[in-house]
């Protein structure tokens, strides 16, 4: 394995819901859900990578984004350093260019949807955070 791959992931918010996409057939871990994003290219800033990936995948352009947390995760086939951003505002409506299934989720209401291993903690954290805000 060649080192750790830098990955950006956007938690895109709209009306109190966040966006998640299903990894399409043909990609490693197809069928698992994740936050839209992908690998950072050489020489690219994290923000530029996020904007590029969200445009490529979904036709969305983040206009207000904030780096939230970073974590490393070792899968069997790859080690990643994930940079999670909150995307508070964006332009465009979702157009899944790469054939992704996608959904807006109420935090805490993701049911049995299988998220990538590195993302389950994040999804749980969003649920706790939304709960605390409600109470
Ligand atoms: N996009 C994204 N990737 C994630 C998340 N959580 C997580 O563990 N990953 C992992 C899955 C992959 O191993 C890696 C991202 O690679 P990718 O295959 O989606 O990236 P990409 O679209 O740039 O890849 P490529 O097909 O061009 O190689 O990070 C997440 O929330 N979003």
Automatic annotation (TrEMBL):
Cofactor: Mg(2+)
Top enzyme class: hydrolase
Keywords: DNA damage, DNA repair, DNA replication, Hydrolase, Magnesium, Metal-binding, Mutator protein
Ranges of residues in domain Nudix hydrolase: 3-128
Record flagged with keyword DNA repair: yes
GO terms assigned for molecular function: 8-oxo-7,8-dihydrodeoxyguanosine triphosphate pyrophosphatase activity; 8-oxo-7,8-dihydroguanosine triphosphate pyrophosphatase activity; 8-oxo-dGDP phosphatase activity; 8-oxo-GDP phosphatase activity; metal ion binding
InterPro entries cross-referenced by the UniProt entry: MutT-like, MutY_C, Nudix_hydrolase, NUDIX_hydrolase-like_dom_sf, NUDIX_hydrolase_CS, NUDIX_hydrolase_dom
E.C. numbers: 3.6.1.55
GO BP annotations listed: DNA repair; DNA replication
UniProt cross-references to PROSITE patterns, sorted A to Z: NUDIX, NUDIX_BOX
Reactions it catalyzes: 8-oxo-dGTP + H2O = 8-oxo-dGMP + diphosphate + H(+); 8-oxo-GTP + H2O = 8-oxo-GMP + diphosphate + H(+)
Protein family: Belongs to the Nudix hydrolase family.
Protein name, as recorded: 8-oxo-dGTP diphosphatase
Source organism: Desulfobaculum xiamenense
